């Protein structure tokens, strides 16, 4: 049986979408989003490997309500045969909204994974698009580096964090979710709680950042 112990050598910190558009004042602001940046900054020195994701959309990304006639933000529709929520324009490549939050310690990030670049399909997870058609290569990259245990946190709990954690577990990684490092959109009341329960049921261990050594 594999060792249950994680050493700094076989673990990585995965920071999900800590971008201007997802924090206070942003186009798709997640309530309290800015608060998690301090958690990220406090955790990074505890990890040899830090990977950050960036939602990175072309201006005509088809998840944007603005790209469809008579569609409102929050509407549900079908995009390429998948259920899709219509979002406000957000995280457009090369814009301020897509940049990492200025207070995030960028110099501690080893690798950046950009996702959502294909306008025809949304991509919540750091590993695959929402149809699991295309891989970002991140799982193989972790395996190449000998990483077996991921600590995940970021925005938003009920979308990109959830999808990333579920994919990571399916890829065979041990996953610890840093709960106070996450905030959710909560389009429907209870979405965040349901997401946490779903991740836990799939095998994620939920912890608070103070307990991460
Ligand atoms: C996200 C909605 C659309 C996220 C990204 O980062 O959770 N949510 N694009
Ligand atoms: Zn997006």
Provide key terms for this protein:
alpha/beta; 6-stranded parallel β-sheet; two-stranded antiparallel sheet; 8 strands; binds pyrazine-2-carboxylic acid; binds zinc ion
Question: What features would you describe in this structure?
Answer:
The protein has 213 residues and is an alpha/beta fold. It has one domain (11-58, 99-211): 3-Layer(aba) Sandwich (Rossmann fold). 19% of the residues lie in helices and 21% in strands. Strands 5-2-1-6-7-8 form a 6-stranded parallel sheet. A two-stranded antiparallel sheet has the order 3-4. The model has no long low-confidence stretch (mean pLDDT 96). The structure holds pyrazine-2-carboxylic acid and zinc ion (ZN).
Walk me through the topology.
Elements (H helix, E strand, L loop, with lengths): L10 E6 L18 H9 L6 E6 L20 E4 L2 E4 L25 E5 L22 H7 L4 E7 L1 H14 L3 E10 L7 H11 L3 E3 L6
Parallel strand pairs: 1-2, 1-6, 2-5, 6-7, 7-8
Antiparallel strand pairs: 3-4
Helix pairs in contact: 3-4
The site of zinc ion has 7 residues, from loops.
How would you summarize this macromolecular structure in one to three sentences?
By secondary structure, the protein is an alpha/beta fold. It has a single domain (11-58, 99-211), classed as 3-Layer(aba) Sandwich (Rossmann fold), CATH 3.40.50.
Helix count equals 4
CATH architecture: 3-Layer(aba) Sandwich
- Give the spatial strand order of the biggest sheet: 5-2-1-6-7-8
What gap, in angstroms, lies between the N and C termini?
24 Å
Structural class: alpha/beta
Share of residues in strands = 15-25%
> Which H/E pattern describes the elements?
EHEEEEHEHEHE
Largest sheet: 6 strands, parallel
- CA radius of gyration is 16 Å
């Amino acid at each position: 049986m594999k060792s249950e112990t994680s050493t700094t050598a076989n673990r990585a910190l995965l920071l999900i979408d800590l971008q201007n558009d997802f924090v206070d004042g942003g186009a798709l602001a997640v309530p309290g989003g800015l608060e998690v940046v301090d958690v990220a900054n406090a955790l990074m020195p505890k990890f040899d490997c830090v990977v950050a994701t960036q939602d990175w959309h072309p201006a005509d990304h088809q998840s944007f309500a603005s790209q469809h006639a008579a569609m409102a933000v929050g509407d549900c529709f079908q995009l390429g045969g998948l259920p899709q929520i219509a979002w406000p324009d957000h995280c457009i490549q090369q814009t301020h909204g897509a940049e990492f939050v200025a207070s995030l310690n960028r110099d501690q990030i080893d690798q950046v994974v950009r996702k959502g670049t294909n306008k025809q399909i949304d991509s919540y997870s750091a590993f695959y698009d929402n149809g699991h058609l295309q891989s970002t290569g991140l799982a193989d990259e972790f395996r190449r580096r000998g990483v077996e245990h991921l600590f995940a946190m970021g925005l938003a709990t009920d979308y990109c964090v959830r999808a990333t954690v579920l994919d990571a577990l399916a890829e065979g990684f041990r996953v610890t979710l840093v709960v106070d490092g996450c905030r959710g959109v909560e389009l429907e009341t209870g979405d965040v709680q349901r997401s946490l329960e779903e991740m836990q049921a799939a095998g994620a261990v939920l912890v608070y950042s103070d307990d991460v050594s």
